[in-house]
Structure formats: C-alpha cells, structure tokens
Amino acid sequence: MTRTLSDGARILQGERTWWFLGPGGGLARLRDTQVTADGGLEAGAENRLRELGMFTTTPPRAYELTVLTSTHCNLGCGYCFQNTAQDLTGGARPPRIARTRLSSRTITDILDFTRRQMAAAELERMNILLFGGEPLLNPRGCLELLERAADHGLGHARMISNATLLKPRLAAQLAERGLRSVQITFDGDRPDHDRIRIGRADGSGTFDTIVRNIVRASEVSELRWQLRVNVSQETYLGVDALIDRLAGALDPARCSLYFAQVGDVGIGYGNDLLHTGELSARFSGWQRRALDLGFTVSRPQAYRPCATCGHGDGRYGAVVSADGTLASCWETAGKTEWEVGSVTAGYLPSEVTKERWVGCEDLYQHDEDRRTLAAFRDSVDAALLDYLDLTGRL
Which top CATH class is 63-304+362-372? Predict the structure, then answer.
C-alpha cells in the first residue's frame, strides 16, 4: 500500500518499514502504528513531522530558464515529442516542428525577459538548461548564451543532448562557461540503441559515437553525466547488458543513471510494455545493479511543483524556443498551437494561457490509468529505499 497526501507528501510501504517523503525535503521511517489503515498518517505522527519541517516548503532559489538553441535534430527517433507524425516510409526522418536557430538578437531579448522575471520573483540567480532539438547543432548559440548569462546571475547550467556532436574542444569551452552536467539518452544496449536512436541523414547507429564522446569530454572537463535509459518493449531485455557495458566504458563515479518508460504524445508511437509487477521488479533490479557498480541513482522524493511549468504563470522559470516564443514546458516548445507568449511581449493573458498551459508529461498517453502508473512508481521507489537502507547508503 502507498499513498500520496494532498500536499505532495508520499507514504511508501517497504518490506520492513514505511517510508515518509516530505514536500519540505527529507525522509523518515514510520512504524505501523503511525500509519492509518488506508495508508495515511496518524495525527501524532503528522504533527511531529510538521514540527520537524518536513511539510514546510520553500520557493525556488533560482530562476529556471530552458532555452532551445536549435529546434532541428540530427537524429530521427520515432518517439520524440517534437515529431509531428511518424515517418511513413519507416525511415529515420519523421516530420518535426519548424526549424529555428537561436541568434544573438534573440539572446538579448531572452536575457532582458529573464531579468524582468527574476526581479518580479525577487530572485538573483538563474540556472540554464540548454535544450533542442539538438542544442549542439548551434554551438555558437550555446556558448554565447552561457557567456552573456554570466552577467545576469548565472548559477549553473546543464544540457540535454544526444552527445553525437560533443567534441572535446567544445566540451571544454562549454564547461569553462558554466556547463556542469549533460543528460544523454540510451535506447537500451548497443544493438537496440543502434536500431532506434539513429542518424537522421543516413539511419546510422550512434551508440559507439556517444560513448566515445563522453569518454573524451571527460578527459578535458569536469562535466558530469546523467544517463537516461529509455525503457520500451523494444529495449527492456537489453538493459542489464547496457548497465554493465556503460560501467566498463565510463567512470560511474561521474555518472547518474535512471530508467524511464517511453510514452506516446499522440504521434503514433506505441509502447506496449505495461506497468506490471514484473516490470517494477526489473526496474528495481536495474537500480540495484547500477548502485553496486558505482553509479548514482537519485533518491525518491515527494511530489513538488516543477519550477518551470508547475505554477501556471511562469513565475519561477520559462521555456523559450529558438525564436523567442514561450511555452509552458519542454513537450510543447516550438509548437505554435501551444505558445503562451514571447520574450519581447511577455506572457499572453491568463484566459489564453490557461488553455495552453500543460505540465511535465501531461501530454503523454498511456493504456493504463493514473492509479496504476502511480502504484508502479511507488513500488519501484519503495524498493530503492529499502535497498539503500539495507546497504547503508541512506
């Protein structure tokens, strides 16, 4: 049994104990007597947790700015939420959102907009996420944005990239300008990855190129790597081999590893892998193996609003496409029907944006209901906490 409370706190039932995850941060063990029959908190336990500040939330300390430096991509992944349909020929060129590229003038407009937003939110720091498309199709835009953001309170920067273009010199330049980490996706082990995550121009595989670029970039920078493993009916049987392969090729101490099921945003990509007990056991096994090999696996947390899309008004962050238009989240950037404003004119009136404002993964379609999806996540998270506790990692 698991339960999510109205304020985002979570109660998970582990094998030997109950786990409480507070929206104010922190983790607590609970005894059976502190949990109600329906998986809630007994009054005394809740009062004590409130006294400890585990329900007390604080606003973001930095403005979270996501910028698409290029909406084009050099890969042709069929599930990408920036596709507008499938490639009807079965090839590697699904139709995508319109192609735009970040310019110096738009960077000026973005930084002016961000300065105004930060002042309104009484924030002095910003964090930047370089996004695309593939952001490194516009390396000059990436470098210029980071360099100029330094005068506007840049705290840290990260990037989501396919890493096929991340050459050592560019990695060093980005790191010098404040880039601290890069998220990179693997679609299962090499054979599956090279069939799914393929070059748009020629359908070529990318696995070895990506791994080689991570290794070389690590030699010239202090960049850290967040490795996302896409899980689908096409990839899940190879994930065990992938974890071992990555551990042999990379430095696990500089890498975090997480597993995410691929969904459909309405473009016809099907993932038939259901959120069953067998699948949750596989996720838990992958996490344990990753930990034992030295990778970081993020601890479960309470449900908290995303700083970028979770407030409905862009108060603490923004997603900006390469042409300066605003979206509420990554999934809708570059899609004209979902635009919520521009950096020059600001956000559209609330009566317009409320119909276009979506949050993280709101557009994803699943064959199962939200209750099933939540139970799956809770099962995996409880098992991870149990293992962290058992191995002295909490």
Answer: alpha beta
| Confidence tier at 363 by pLDDT (50, 70, 90) | confident
**Residue whose C-alpha is closest to residue 92's, from 79, 111, 103:** 79
Q: Are residues 322 and 98 in contact, defined by beta-carbon separation less than 8 angstroms?
A: no
Distances in Å between the Cα of 352 and the Cα atoms of 110, 120, 313 are 22, 21, 11
pLDDT band, residue 239 (cuts 50/70/90): very high
pTM across the whole model: 0.95
For the chain, the structural domain boundaries read 2-57, 63-304+362-372
Strand partners, 347: 341
Q: Beta-strand (E) ranges in the chain?
A: 2-4, 10-13, 18-21, 27-30, 63-68, 126-131, 154-160, 179-186, 224-231, 255-261, 317-320, 325-327, 341-342, 346-347
Q: Which two tokens stand for residue 335?
A: 């899609």
Write the pLDDT tens digit of every residue in 296-342.
999 999 998 899 998 888 999 999 999 999 999 999 999 999 999 99
**88, 133, 82: which is closest to 266 by C-alpha?**
82
Helices 277-292 & 239-249 angle (0-180, nearest 10): 10
